[in-house]
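Researcher: Please generate the 3D structure of the following complex. Treat every line as part of one assembly.
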Amino acid sequence: MREVLIEAAFQLFMENGFERTTVDDIVTRAGVGRRSFFRYFPSKEDVVFPEHERCLTEMSAFLTTSTDGEPLDAVCDAARLVMRMYAANPEFSVQRYRLTREVPSLRGYELSVVHRYERTLAHYLRQRYAGDRNGALRAEVQAAAVVAAHNNGLRAWLRGGGHGDAAKTVDQALTFVRQTWDDAGESAESGGTASAPEDDVIVMVAPRGAPLWRVVQKIEKTLGDE
Amino acid sequence: MREVLIEAAFQLFMENGFERTTVDDIVTRAGVGRRSFFRYFPSKEDVVFPEHERCLTEMSAFLTTSTDGEPLDAVCDAARLVMRMYAANPEFSVQRYRLTREVPSLRGYELSVVHRYERTLAHYLRQRYAGDRNGALRAEVQAAAVVAAHNNGLRAWLRGGGHGDAAKTVDQALTFVRQTWDDAGESAESGGTASAPEDDVIVMVAPRGAPLWRVVQKIEKTLGDE
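Model: Done. Output below.
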């Protein structure tokens, strides 16, 4: 029933445009009653994005179990759930992408969905960073960055007609975000010397004018601290 | 006329709520005709956010003239225009903040406005990074990060009743974003050794297992390169 309504709706949106298609048109084409439509979809906009509620639920469930590892890695993995939902049905995703670009009310709907994903990621990061200085700020900035990168990759794939590898395109974009904070890493937090997140790298910061013996002393101290 | 309509509208929103106030109520209270309202405001939502159009125009104009300096500094300065608009009228801003949290259609309106600011910043950064590898991606991620940080600071100020120093709160949040990319900086781009963006700091990266003599050699080489 639900699938039949989605298919009927998209046929009509493609034929007559989103605005000119009514819920009555959709149920007539699908051969079901008007009440059936509203049992599945609160509004005409919802039928365009039928999988986001499920995906939001999956994302929350995934994050609830992600208590170990790097918080930023967990939210990148969570964002990939959205990419996978799009990639599971390239043709439908590309159709919807084109439709959404043309219809202001759909763009508004999409913005609100993206905002809910971002809030879900930020909520998770705030919990992981609880007690850190600037924890909430870091959580919100990183969630926004992950969503922006994910959407940059996803849009590139959609613009390409959904023909390429969505996972690869989105992964490349997410790698940019992870590298940003890997590189900023611990040394930025504490100042002076500190070990980098990776196991095999040391990052050393010293005043440019420092004499070499003092730089060496600092390295020896850092190595001794490990 | 415009100011009178805004004041009448807010009185009524506070007294009766946003949903229960009609445009007819507003023009009656303001003592003007219905057509006057729509001359200034396309919808009831627009009267709640009367300054954003002007601010968006100012932001674009400011960025058009910002062709020198660090691109990220320019977008942080541009974002501050929004904070200043809020800080110019703390009482009104706090009232609106409370109203927006309660009314879904206003939250939707606000999301679309925030999205327009973000697109304006991203558009500027894309131009500044044109030709760079990952330029568009970097532009979109940084724009999202700046907007998230700005809004984190602004919301903290609004939650505090608009009593503190909005500029200070927002500046602290924006500093976090600028430090993120300062620290990731050049060394992340080129790998190995490189000078940090600040004039008086050197960043050195070496394998953790490297013998000390090789680390020193690398420092000497770096210092020699300066």
